[in-house]
Amino acid sequence: MKKTMAVLLALVLALLPLGGCASTGEETPRARLQVVASFYPMALLTERVIEGVPGVALHTMAQMNTGCLHDYQLQPRDMKILENADVLVYNGAGMEGFIGRVAALRPGLKLIEASAGQALLESAAHEHEHEDGHEAHEEHHHGDANAHLWLSPKRAMAQVENIRDELIAADPEYAQVYRENAQAFLQELEQLDGQVATLLAPCQGQGVVTFHEGFTYLLEDYGLYQAGLLQTDDENAPSPRYMAELIDHIRQEGIAALFCEKQYSTRLAEAISRETGAKIYTLDTIVSGPGGRDAYANAVLQNAQTISEALKK
């Protein structure tokens, strides 16, 4: 019996982790500064600014399959992330409707609005409401502004500057590192701006029909214009009257390309394509992706290349 017990004890000890303790061991120390990005594009911009700063951790709140955050409701997972956060970087311009609630729940949390100070275009959904004579419902109103500034590198540069300045205010000890990181990233974005300008220069003055208003800043910043939207409301299909008017407009303007988004169905575009002969192309709103240092630039450049190829006459 004693021999049997000795064997069993040896087996148990062999299965225990080194150190002879069956607990989880030492806990990972909490980061000195917990930074949360509201969603994927804000994480891409913030990541480059905090790169290599000691003791800073970055978390992304909304999961990547969420898309834009116009009507996003805070999830238990988000509240858990925010519970220990020191800083929240968000797009602003009406994109994150939950910011007021977050500010009330976490009064000590530093909020960084990446779009602060930028001149904003009016939301196409807001314009359409006025045209139809309908009032917006408060629970589904996207605000008066188009919030999709990150899709144009010109606007993204201003967002990076805001993120840099506010992180320096929150963590002044490492101000120089934040400045150097931001400067290197801004130089890359300036080069990206030049590449996009070169690609879209032959397309200047042309009208573009996109799935929704996400690309209006990109178009206007590089000499094109928004000629129509396939969808003006995230939840409701466009009316038959709107569809008929859009089809007539596409025919009259001779628009040969329709731009959908990889996060959404192409059903509407396919219907309009059958009526007008316009070809369908896909753009990326950069609300999901593989991540990485070059993820933002690669996605923007791919969008510009797609528009350029589609509009070449």
Would you summarize the structure shown here?
This protein is α/β, with parallel strands linked by helices and 313 residues long.
Radius of gyration: 24 Å
Q: How many angstroms does the end-to-end distance come to?
A: 91 Å
Reading off the top of the CATH hierarchy, the class of the largest domain is best stated as: Alpha Beta
| Strand elements, count | 8
The CATH architecture designation of the largest domain is 3-Layer(aba) Sandwich
Largest sheet, in brief, is: 4 strands, parallel
Helix content: 40-55%
**Integer average pLDDT:** 86
Structural class: alpha/beta
Domain count: the total is 2
- Helical region count? 11
CATH topology call of the largest domain: Rossmann fold
Quick one: overall form? globular
> How do the strands of the widest beta sheet line up side by side?
2-1-3-4
| % residues in beta strands | 5-15%
Order of helices and strands: HEHEHEHEHHHEHEHEHEH
CATH superfamily of the largest domain: Nitrogenase molybdenum iron protein domain
Low-confidence stretches: 1-28, 126-142
Organism: Luoshenia tenuis
GO molecular function: metal ion binding
Pfam family, one: ZnuA
InterPro entries: Bact_metal-bind_prot9 (IPR050492), ZnuA-like (IPR006127)
Structure characteristics:
313 residues; alpha/beta; Rossmann fold; four-stranded parallel β-sheet; 11 helices; 8 strands; globular; disordered N terminus; metal ion binding; Bact_metal-bind_prot9; transport; ZnuA-like
